[in-house]
Each structure stands twice: as structure tokens, then as C-alpha cells.
Amino acid sequence: MRAYRMTATGTARLLELPPPPIGPDQVRLRVLAAGICHSDLHVLDAPTAMWEPPFTLGHEICGTVTDLGAGTDPGLLGRQVVVHAPYGCGRCRRCASGATNDCDRRRELPAGLGLGVDGGMADEIAVDAARLVDADGLDPAEAAALTDAGLTSYRAVAGSMDLLGDPGAVAVVVGVGGLGHLAVGVLRALTGARVVAVDTRAAALDLARECGAHAVCGPAEVASVVDVVSDGRGADVVLDFVGAQATLDGAGPLLRTAGELVVVGGAGGVLPVSKPGPLPSGARLRLPFWGSRDELVATVGLAREGRIRSRTTTYPLSDVARALDDLRAGRVLGRAVLVPDRAGPDPATGQRADHPPSTTSSDPVV
Ligand code: NAD
Ligand code: ZN
Ligand code: ZN
To answer: First CA to last CA across the chain, in angstroms?
Structure first.
């Protein structure tokens, strides 16, 4: 099988590997779709490796269960599933409740499958059965995008529900890419807030409107747009899906007194926190990371009910480098998702395309 592996700091390559072995309580998936996150660019571009290579990239995974490890449910065979990929110690209370994203040992462990341990930009992957969430019937590329772009957006919004329930509440989504377009959808699905979406790209603003944003604008206009939409009070919540210096500097002045800044993006900006400072009196600051397994179930549920939808641009796995270039250059709308361009294992024989049966001298040579 092929896997797109980070082989050294700043270097990743599509390599041929044997299918991954499965241990007890694990299953093997034929990958149907693997999303590409801007975090993959942060990992690839980091001047020092964030986690020891080699490992396969890809933390948004949808696949079909093809092989069962000891102790797994035989009913899983053939199911289409998505993977809850945040990595945790497996022993702390957060991990026990499925919130591996908030594991007590987060700082010392890999962040997730594809982020320090083998992920899903591959033809196949072995995963713990406990990570699987049923995704039968969903478009695989759209389902893959739910596992991080959707889940992280869900968590980002869910944590601000107390503020977003205020009558006339205003939420600002900064950066309408893979995550931001789903955040607009989640805000519309779960809250009555007026949603203002901000991006530097006109096409992303069109996408925000399509996802349900009430107002869209570029960074230069957002202060005046929020002023109008909020009747001069300011935004109850600003969700920053960029995290650059410009967006962090711009967020504080948009906020209402006792509003909340939710920083999701990691583009390297630094926010000084002081009293008094750039955030208004009473403000809250939150730095959510991904989401829990239960929240992934809820996110998939919203998609099943048609209340949110991922917009995707698909690329064959063999074109992963082009897909990453397009994301880096701002040419992707919604989520870029890798899909297989090689036949999977034969369901009847388990035969894999890259492991043909050995031939004998009596075989005809044509
Ligand atoms: P993306 O590239 O798909 O989207 C980024 C969007 O921001 C693009 O539409 C771009 O045009 C827009 N943008 C860039 N600069 C802007 C500016 N100054 N003002 C307004 N818009 C601007 O990226 P993504 O995959 O959605 O990821 C977004 C960020 O979130 C990345 O930094 C990623 O690492 C981070 N992330 C965080 C978590 C978490 O759990 N905290 C999870 C996933 C991704
Ligand atoms: Zn991600
Ligand atoms: Zn833990």
C-alpha cells in the first residue's frame, strides 16, 4: 500500500509499505477519504520536527473496515466509519470519558493519528476499534472532513453556548477555510446568533454565505459590519480560525464587554494579555483543541440530519503534493480531501493490488 509519510523534518514522501499489522482490539480500514488540514502544513513547515519522524500524515479519516483484530465486534466488518483521532494516554479521566483531545498528558504525547503516529493519508490504516464512529451512508470525503474541521468547529462553538444564547447575539468567524465554513454551519445549526464571516478571499466569502452567514466581509470592513449587526454592542464571540498576528490584533476591538475570544488557528500570532489590555473588560479567552468522541458523534449526527455539510475538493492520493501546494497557495475552497486511486483489497479474497499472488513457472507468460 501507499502512505504519505513525514520522513524527516520538512520532508514527506509517498512510499510503498506493507499493509499495517493489526493488534488486539484493532481493525484495519481501507481508507476511502483523508482530509488535509492546514495543521498538516504547520507540521510540514515547522523548522524543528514537532514529533519524531517517520509517521504517516492524515488525521481526518473515513474508511471501510476490512479486517478484524482479536476481540473486535464481527459486526464491524464492511462498515463505513470515521475515526476519532486525538491521541491520549488512555488512562486519565479525560481519556476514559472519550475526551482524549484534553488528555492530562497532552503536552508530552503525539497529538493524534497523523500527528506523531501513523495516520490516514494511505491506502490502509490500523486503528483501535474504540475510535470508530459509524458513518454509513455519508459521502466519505464529507464524512472525513467532519472528524477535525467539523469536530473542532463543533467544540469551538459548543464552548460558547452560554454567550450565544443571548437574544441578538453576534458571532464572528475569522477564516472561512476547512474549519471556518463548518463553524458557520454549526453556528447556524445550534444557535440563533447572527453570524459575520471574514476572509481575505472573495470565493471563501461566497462559501460562507452559502453555509448560512448573515454578513460577510474582508478584514478591513469587519469592525464596521460588526458595529451595524450588533447595534453597536460588539460581538459576543469571535472565533479565530487563522491565529495570525493580524487576526489576533483585530479580535479584541470587535468584542462586546464580557465577550469571548476563541483562538483555534495556529498561524503564529501572539496575543498580549493584560488588564487593561487588548481584550475588553470581563472577556474570556479559550484555546480549544479538537473534540471528544461524544462530540464527534454529535457532529456526525448534525451531518446525517442535513443540518451541517462539509464542502470538499477531492484529489487522488497520488496527487497529495499538489493538494498541499493548493492549500498553501489558498486555492482550496472548503476542505481538500484525498481519495484512493488504486483498487482496494478484493472483498472475496482479501488480495491487495500491491501484493499480487506469487506466480509459478507454470503460469502462462503473456
Ligand atoms: P484553511 O487554510 O483551510 O483556512 C484558512 C482560511 O483563513 C482561508 O480561507 C484563508 O483565506 C483565511 N485567512 C487567511 N488569513 C486571513 C486573515 N488575515 N483574515 C481572514 N481570513 C484569513 O485552514 P484550516 O484547515 O481551516 O485550519 C485553520 C487553522 O486552524 C490552522 O492554523 C490550523 O492549524 C488550525 N487548526 C486548529 C485546530 C485545533 O484543534 N485548535 C484543529 C484544526 C486546525
Ligand atoms: Zn487538523
Ligand atoms: Zn489521558
So the answer is: 26
Residue closest to 35 by CA, chosen among 335, 341, 340, 241: 335
Q: At the top level of CATH, which class does the domain 2-148+291-354 belong to? A: alpha beta
Q: What is the pLDDT of residues 286-336, one digit of tens each?
A: 999 999 999 999 999 999 999 999 999 999 999 999 999 999 999 999 999
| Mean of pLDDT values over 64-92 | 98
Question: What is the Cα–Cα distance from 315 to 334, expressed in whole angstroms?
Answer: 13
Q: What is the pLDDT of residues 131-142, one digit of tens each?
A: 999 999 999 999
Looking at residues 112-125, what average pLDDT do you find? 98
Q: How far is the CA of 112 from the centre of ligand 3 (A)?
A: 12
Say yes or no: CB of residue 244 within 6 Å of ligand 1: yes
Confirm if 290 and 149 have CB atoms less than 8 A apart.
Answer: no
Measured from the Cα of 101, ligand 1's closest atom is: 40
For residue 287, give the ligand 1 atom closest to its CA.
41
154 Cβ below 6 A of ligand 1: no
Residue 344 has a pLDDT of: 78
Does residue 358 register a pLDDT over 50? no
**Grid cell for residue 102:** 484534553
Q: Hey, which residues does 64 pair with through a beta bridge?
A: 30, 80
pLDDT of residue 189: 98
CB atoms within 10 A of CB 52: 10
What residue spans define the domains of the chain?
Answer: 2-148+291-354, 160-286
| CATH number among 3.40.50.1360, 3.40.50.150, 3.30.160.270, 3.40.50.720, domain 160-286 | 3.40.50.720
Q: What angle do CA 288, 289, 291 make, to 5 degrees?
A: 100
Cβ neighbours, 10 Å, residue 362? 5
Cα distance between residue 243 and residue 265, in whole Å: 4
SS3 185: helix
pLDDT of amino acid 351 = 72
**Ion ligand 3 — residues with CB < 5 Å:** 88-89, 92, 95, 103
